[in-house]
Amino acid sequence: MQLRLDALEAHLAKGLAGLYVVYGDEHLLAQEASDRIRATARAAGFTDRSVFTVERGFDWSSLLGASQSMSLFGDKQLVELRIPSGKPGKEGADALKALAAAVNPDVLTMITLPRLDSATQKAAWFAALSDAGVALKIDPVERAQLPNWVGQRLAAQGQRVAAGEEGRRALAFIAERVEGNLLAAHQEIQKLGLLYPAGSLSFDQIQDAVLNVARYDVFKLNEAMLAGDVGRLSRMLDGLRGEGEAAVLVLWAVVEEVRTLLRIKRGVAAGKPLAMLVRENRVWGPRERLIGPALSRVTEAALEKGLALAAKLDRQVKGLSGGTPGNHRNDPPPDPWNGLFELAMMVASPAKSAPVKPPVRPGPAAPVRRPV
């Protein structure tokens, strides 16, 4: 049985299943869900606990033995299996199918996995586990949902932001400071609970307490670019540079998005359905919702111009050439990070891409990769 995270509490209130599979890359939410299952299991008498972690050479027979054995003291036991790679292999797949088929009312099994692709979720071993117990998928909290998530967490500890625009600004402020780092958001919310009493929090109180603990993800950069969120785009480029991310990796991510937009743009012009083109180009998740507005905002000529700029930036970040001091019209800026901003702006805000001065703060020279 598949179960949503927000339905876990109601499910546990009705009683425990014999098998749980918790999977997803949002570590904070996965840990909290696992803790809730453990706490409910302890309250139900599963006081003995065995933990197995799948590594190279793992003995799957030890897991099967534990799932069928009784505790020396006659206690019910919780057996936890952690598969960090998400790939059990052939022997592991057979063992997991056998585990799913076994029934032992004195043993509760909890398996934790990372995010699984669609092919793995269709594998026989995963289907057997889902059919035999409860599969709990941990979806990430998207950027647009983060302010509401923060507000809910504050409410859970008896705090709230001010009403109206000030409150929305406060939640947006927290979301910006912890972007991509849900654990940091949780810690900052807990800190607010320690610093201030229950009740309303002002924007000034939040601003004074919340640190800039963002973790910038080069692949989230594309979402900001497609959404046309210039402020977020600037912050993310600034943050990636400050964290020492290689300019060549950032360039690759941006160029892949430009190429995808150009292929879909040309496909639509040729009369192909947008939905089909989106699937063919493997556009999923938040990007799927953002691709339509981005296509209507940017022209084919602008995308082609972006690829021409990207070719010059590629040589520049690899140390094959640099910005030209003469500042010719078609040359990239001397600093490749400014060139990256200019390229991203061709999608984020094409009408302003040429005259906008990149607001990336000065920093150390970008890492240079020279050809071998």
Automatic annotation (TrEMBL):
<comment type="similarity">
    <text>Belongs to the DNA polymerase HolA subunit family.</text>
</comment>
<keyword id="KW-0808">Transferase</keyword>
<dbReference type="Pfam" id="PF06144">
    <property type="entry name" value="DNA_pol3_delta"/>
</dbReference>
<feature type="region of interest" description="Disordered">
    <location>
        <begin position="318"/>
        <end position="338"/>
    </location>
</feature>
<keyword id="KW-0548">Nucleotidyltransferase</keyword>
<dbReference type="InterPro" id="IPR027417">
    <property type="entry name" value="P-loop_NTPase"/>
</dbReference>
<dbReference type="GO" id="GO:0003677">
    <property type="term" value="F:DNA binding"/>
</dbReference>
<feature type="region of interest" description="Disordered">
    <location>
        <begin position="352"/>
        <end position="372"/>
    </location>
</feature>
<dbReference type="InterPro" id="IPR008921">
    <property type="entry name" value="DNA_pol3_clamp-load_cplx_C"/>
</dbReference>
<dbReference type="Pfam" id="PF14840">
    <property type="entry name" value="DNA_pol3_delt_C"/>
</dbReference>
<feature type="compositionally biased region" description="Pro residues">
    <location>
        <begin position="356"/>
        <end position="365"/>
    </location>
</feature>
<dbReference type="InterPro" id="IPR032780">
    <property type="entry name" value="DNA_pol3_delt_C"/>
</dbReference>
<feature type="domain" description="DNA polymerase III delta N-terminal">
    <location>
        <begin position="20"/>
        <end position="131"/>
    </location>
</feature>
<keyword id="KW-0239">DNA-directed DNA polymerase</keyword>
<dbReference type="GO" id="GO:0009360">
    <property type="term" value="C:DNA polymerase III complex"/>
</dbReference>
<keyword id="KW-0235">DNA replication</keyword>
<dbReference type="GO" id="GO:0006261">
    <property type="term" value="P:DNA-templated DNA replication"/>
</dbReference>
<feature type="domain" description="DNA polymerase III subunit delta C-terminal">
    <location>
        <begin position="219"/>
        <end position="318"/>
    </location>
</feature>
<dbReference type="GO" id="GO:0003887">
    <property type="term" value="F:DNA-directed DNA polymerase activity"/>
</dbReference>
<dbReference type="InterPro" id="IPR010372">
    <property type="entry name" value="DNA_pol3_delta_N"/>
</dbReference>
<protein>
    <recommendedName>
        <fullName>DNA polymerase III subunit delta</fullName>
        <ecNumber>2.7.7.7</ecNumber>
    </recommendedName>
</protein>
<dbReference type="InterPro" id="IPR005790">
    <property type="entry name" value="DNA_polIII_delta"/>
</dbReference>
